[in-house]
Design goal:
The complex is a heterodimer of chains A (367) and B (110). By secondary structure, chain A is an alpha/beta fold. Chain A is built from 14 helices and ten strands. Chain A has a domain of 222 residues: Aldolase class I (TIM Barrel). Chain B is built from three helices and five strands. The chains are: A alpha/beta (367), B alpha+beta (110). Chain B: Monomer. Interacts with PqqE.
């Protein structure tokens, strides 16, 4: 389908309010080179973005970062989001989410909290987070439930925690969560730097998948469980962002607008900014949002594939990272002529897991 | 199986909001991390799920308003929404069978 035929309004906006964060997770998807991203839009500018987003068709707002609570004006942004008709999700580490701050957000109209947890026990969770934070997360969960908001616990899975899915489900139940997201690491940003130390071996992936199914059976009456597979172990690619420029857009702290969080890495992709161009114009007309929209851009084997409107050719940023070409078929696909690149990565993970220091090697913590 | 029947009373789970989207000219159900665009009839059914009336009451009310209301179809819609954890079965003595469809599996790949 041509890009024009694919034109429809976006559903979701990921608002990366700030890249400041008290945590140092080695799998962070934020850009490794922060550079210009230290500059942040003002509250007034963000409110304009939210108004434009709703007028464009966005219904879901993900207030993310970094840590969105580093913005003191967060309640004003939530209030504005509610006023224009957006559903607001707070995506937080929980650090700083006291009863008092939460009360202000609830009063402003916050709909839902997604709380990250790094592992099922304090010491290991704090080690991955690079800071003492587990007890503050527990307190944050308690505050969210006291305030009567729905709570999602989100855990990024990797080699060092993927064997504790059952314990993580117990924790989610204990903390009163309504949903548990178990999402295998996606290797962009800091995670790409640490891939060799994070990628689980195949057996571990299978164990975690089985444990997630068990947990869903055991806790299904209290907890909705979403398990996001590690795509490197699949033979068909993920439908990244549900298609380029099709459902979602990302606005960075400085106002840059991207089709996905990692798209800033794609060389030669011109990035528009909300300060210079209306959001609707960026969504419908910009080169960046049209570059991989629809199916006309696709190479073989995607071009003639019956699944081309199911997986949209997979992930552009993964094709770039693994093949140096953002317009290639995602090599996760077994039909890709370069699928062996992925097979090799997985074999390396297998070998590393068998090695003596697999669990203790140093990772580069997010700064 | 979601174990709902004519005597069940349903209401939206916390964090679920029914809105009308002026941009698309469509009703929409907003919930944690998701959006469901729904048609007029589904919106009418959902709007009536306040935990007060039973599914049977709801079907009767719909029947009075529209032609050709099918109780099975309404029940199927409500079951799907319970399975998707958007509606909640209020504690009214209706049987609550174990829910086998809660595992959202491998669909949510981003």
């Amino acid at each position: 389908m041509s890009a024009e035929a694919e034109m429809r309004p976006p559903i979701g906006l990921l608002a990366e309010l700030s890249y400041r964060c008290p945590l140092h997770c080695p799998y962070c998807s934020n850009p490794v080179a922060l550079g210009d991203h230290r500059r942040e839009l003002t509250g007034e500018q963000w409110c304009r973005v939210l108004t434009e987003a709703r007028e464009l068709g966005v219904l879901q707002l993900h207030l993310s970062g970094g840590e969105p609570l580093t913005r003191r004006d967060l309640p004003e942004l939530v209030r504005h989001a509610r006023r224009v008709g957006l559903y607001s999700n707070l995506v937080t580490s929980g650090v700083g989410l006291t009863d008092r701050r939460l009360a202000a957000l609830v009063e402003a109209g916050l709909d839902h909290v997604q709380l990250s947890v790094q592992d099922s026990a304090a010491e290991r969770s704090d080690r991955i987070a690079g800071t003492r934070s587990f007890e503050r997360k527990r307190a944050a969960a308690r505050a969210v439930k006291r305030a009567g908001l729905p709570l999602t616990v989100n855990v990024v899975l990797h080699r060092h925690n993927a064997d504790r899915v059952a314990e993580l489900a117990e924790l989610a139940v204990r903390w009163g969560a309504d949903r548990l997201e178990l999402a295998h690491t996606q290797y962009y940003g800091w995670a790409a730097l640490n891939q060799a130390r994070l990628l689980p071996a195949r057996e571990q992936v299978e164990r975690s998948r089985a444990a997630a199914r068990d947990a869903a059976e055991r806790h299904g009456d209290r907890l909705g469980i979403v398990y996001v597979v590690p795509d490197l172990y699949e033979d068909r690619p993920k439908p990244c962002m549900h298609g380029w420029g099709r459902r979602h857009l990302v606005v960075r702290p400085n106002g840059d607008v991207l089709p996905c969080t990692a798209a800033g890495e794609i060389p030669g992709l011109p990035i528009e900014n909300v300060l210079g161009t209306p959001l609707a114009e960026i969504w419908f007309s910009s080169e960046s949002f049209n570059r991989f929209r629809g199916t006309d851009w696709m190479p073989d084997p995607c071009r003639g594939c019956p699944l081309r409107e199911v997986d949209f050719g997979g992930c552009r940023c993964q094709a770039l990272r693994l093949l140096g070409d953002a317009s290639a078929t995602d090599p996760v696909c077994a039909l890709s002529p370069h699928h062996s690149v992925v097979t090799r990565l997985v074999e390396q993970a297998q070998a590393a897991q068998a090695g003596p220091d697999a669990a203790s090697g140093p990772m580069v913590p997010r700064r | 199986m979601t174990g709902i029947g004519p005597r069940s009373r349903l209401r939206p789970r916390s964090g679920v909001r029914l809105v009308f989207d002026e941009v698309r000219g469509s009703h929409a159900l907003l919930y944690p991390e998701g959006v469901l665009l729904i048609n007029e009839t589904a919106a009418r059914v959902l709007g009536a799920c306040t935990g007060e009336s039973t599914v049977a009451d709801l079907v009767a009310a719909l029947d009075a308003e529209y032609d050709g209301v099918c109780a099975e179809e309404v029940l199927a819609l409500l079951s799907r929404l319970v399975t998707a954890r958007l509606l909640h079965v209020a504690e009214d003595g209706s049987p609550r069978a174990a829910d086998q469809d809660r595992f959202e599996g491998d669909e949510d790949v981003r």
